[in-house]
Design a protein that fits this description.
The structure is a single chain. This protein is 3% helix and 59% strand. The chain is mainly β.
């Protein structure tokens, strides 16, 4: 009996390779790293195109994937950071790529085109060739909305000791966290950070969940910290965190004070 199985594509993770450009660009070729968040057919993430690690442009992007044709289209929408020579200008790009697997090697190849961010003139187009990688050359962000990003820029949270209460290993990249008051509702409020990004700010714990959804990249380290904004009516500040990742479910009890913050480490291993 012959048993056949197919393996669904998982674009989630780090992709690294090269981006070439026709004459007229700053350099004929660049390195390119895509940090792709992938759920169903939707894509989001960050792109770094760079000549070396000191000269780069960081972009945010969104896109779609067609599992029937193995084609994905990615559209950059914003320049997040730019460290390039003054005579160069960032190019906001659209990628038209095809996914292929050869043994254990996964590749994205195709074309790109775009326009200069400041002049709205067309950039010389080029080619892209990427392979899935196990590690990033740049920091991997946790997605944070613009409101929380602006808020965090003006925050000055008091430094506190961190106590790691648990390490959670999951087999799905999509992770849902729900926070409840651990016992009697006593007006505890919390601020929650993942990899130093504020994802909940001064929210009161009740019998209804405070929810965070985030996407984890394979083999990357993620640290959640629950910061106690107050101690409520009954110190210390305690919470029950429910973790859902695919079919996996975990309960984690957290307790924070004015001296110490509870921390949980997450690792996604496919």
């Amino acid at each position: 009996m012959l048993s056949l199985c197919s393996r669904a594509e998982d674009l989630n993770g780090i992709w690294k390779g090269t981006l070439t450009q026709a004459p007229g660009g700053c350099y004929p070729s660049y390195f390119l790293e895509l940090q792709i968040n992938f759920s169903n057919d939707r894509i989001s993430g960050k792109a770094y195109d760079y000549y070396d690690k000191a000269h780069f442009v960081k972009m945010s992007f969104t896109g779609r994937y067609n599992a029937q044709t193995h084609r994905l289209v990615i559209i950059e929408d914003r320049v997040l950071e730019s460290e390039i020579p003054v005579e160069c200008a960032p190019c906001i790009k659209t990628y038209d790529l095809n996914y292929a697997r050869n043994g254990n090697v996964e590749e994205l190849t195709g074309d790109w085109k775009g326009f200069f961010s400041d002049k709205h003139l067309v950039c010389p187009p080029g080619k892209i060739k990427l392979q899935k990688a196990s590690a990033s050359d740049f920091p991997v962000d946790v997605d944070q909305n613009d409101t929380l990003a602006r808020l965090q820029a003006s925050l000055h949270l008091q430094p506190r000791e961190k106590e790691v209460v648990k390490t959670v290993t999951v087999n799905s990249p999509q992770i849902k966290l729900e926070f409840y008051d651990n016992a009697e509702i006593d007006h505890d409020t919390i601020t929650v950070l993942i990899n130093n990004k504020v994802l909940l700010y001064r929210q009161m714990l009740t019998d209804r969940p405070l929810t965070i959804n985030f996407n984890a990249f394979p083999n990357m380290a993620y640290e959640l910290v629950m910061y106690a904004d107050n101690l409520g009516d009954i110190p210390p500040n305690t919470a029950l965190m429910m973790v859902t990742a695919g079919s996996q479910k975990f309960e984690v009890f957290l307790s924070s004070s004015e001296e110490k913050s509870a921390a949980v480490h997450f690792v996604y291993r496919p």
